[in-house]
Design a protein that fits this description.
Blueprint lengths: L1 E6 L15 H12 L4 E6 L5 H8 L3 E4 L11 H9 L8 H8 L1 H10 L7 E5 L14 E5 L13 E2 L2 H15 L3 E5 L3 E9 L5 E2 L3 E4 L5 H7 L5 H7 L4 E3 L6 H17 L5 E9 L4 E7 L10 H8 L4 H18 L6
Parallel strand pairs: 1-2, 1-3
Antiparallel strand pairs: 4-7, 5-6, 5-7, 8-9, 8-10, 8-12, 10-11, 12-13
Helix pairs in contact: 1-11
């Protein structure tokens, strides 16, 4: 097949560019597709000629991993591809928008009875007053960011003064709305989803922060901070399946399956969750554009646990999209 890859190239290692893909990742995806006999062409999403090039060359399908540059940047490439009637891997603009907006995602899931942390407030301006908070701890984090951008060990707040300081700092630095929500004390897990009819829910993968030394643990505080993801993630321990009873594991996968459908997602997604002391899995995030760095991202790590290769992962994502197109079935709005 003639396949295009849409992406945003990471040109520096600063926080703002953390969600973009490195040349190593782009090349690895390209080689994985070429290994199965496909012709592959790269399309940089920042290019002013993106629409023209896609319209002119018309790949048979696009492997989409573009993040975009604005608050709703992830929907930019899917909108172009839908307009050109070029099929692509991954979710539609509707599913991506619901996953990208953490507030919209949580409200959607709460409406169907799925467990999500309690949302206390959305703050869009430093001048906006923070309302009284019923119970601590809480966590302050950006609504639209991925890759743990804007999340540090200080994001977990144990009193109102800490909330005020952290909220002001994140607003001033990122210039984007933040949310104040209940912090779930428990174990961190991530869950991969692949396919559509029905989707395959992979066993939850537990992230164990205990191997980190004192300095690393302080910078992480038992959550996936930006510092943890960039510097310490390889030092943590990972367990697949997560160390829970079969009953709790089933509860997690069932919750994720319902969330995947409710958010109108398709082909591939990765969910982040925290499981409290009672075994209740609270959905934190849905990642419609999954990280695919071969030696760092969680989805490739899940595939390694399953004794599958990186090439298998990339081509399984492609196969999920091709199956959806072949069946010509609507899996979302």
């Amino acid at each position: 097949m003639k396949i295009g890859i849409t992406f945003n190239l990471r040109k520096s290692d600063n926080e703002r560019n953390a969600v973009y893909d490195s040349p190593i990742t782009i090349e690895a995806i390209k080689k994985a597709l070429q290994a199965r006999g496909h012709q592959v062409k790269l399309y940089e999403a920042n290019s002013k000629a993106l629409f023209y090039n896609l319209a002119l060359e018309r790949p048979q399908i696009v492997f989409n991993m573009a993040e975009g540059n604005s608050i709703f940047g992830e929907i930019y490439v899917p909108i172009i591809l839908d307009e050109l009637k070029i099929p692509y891997t991954g979710s539609s603009p509707v599913g991506i928008s619901l996953a990208l907006n953490k507030v919209a995602m949580k409200r959607t899931l709460a409406n169907i009875g799925l467990p999500v942390p309690k949302l206390y407030q959305v703050i869009s301006s430093i001048k906006e007053p923070i309302q009284p908070i019923e119970e601590f701890p809480v966590i302050v984090k950006p609504i639209f960011e991925g890759a743990s951008i804007g999340i540090s060990s200080k994001s977990i707040c144990f009193n109102f003064e800490q909330v005020q300081k952290v909220t002001a700092k994140v607003l001033e630095r990122l210039k984007k709305p933040v949310m104040i929500e209940q912090f779930i004390d428990g174990k961190e897990v991530t869950i991969g989803v692949l396919g559509n009819f029905p989707p395959q829910i992979f066993p939850p993968m537990e992230i164990d922060f205990s191997p980190l030394n004192k300095k690393e643990a302080k910078a992480s505080s038992g959550i996936q901070t930006f510092k943890f993801k960039t510097d310490y993630s390889e030092k943590a321990s990972y367990y697949l399946p997560a160390r829970f009873s079969s009953e709790i594991l089933s509860r997690i996968t069932d919750t994720v399956a319902k969330a995947f459908t409710a958010l109108n997602l398709r082909d591939v997604t990765r969910f982040d969750a925290r499981v409290d002391q009672n075994g209740v899995p609270y959905i934190l995030e849905a990642n419609a554009i999954v990280g695919l760095e071969p030696n760092h991202s969680d989805f490739p790590r899940i595939y390694k646990f399953l004794n599958k290769s990186y090439d298998d992962l990339i081509n399984d994502i492609l196969a999920a999209a091709l199956e959806r197109l072949k069946r010509n079935e609507r899996v979302n709005y």
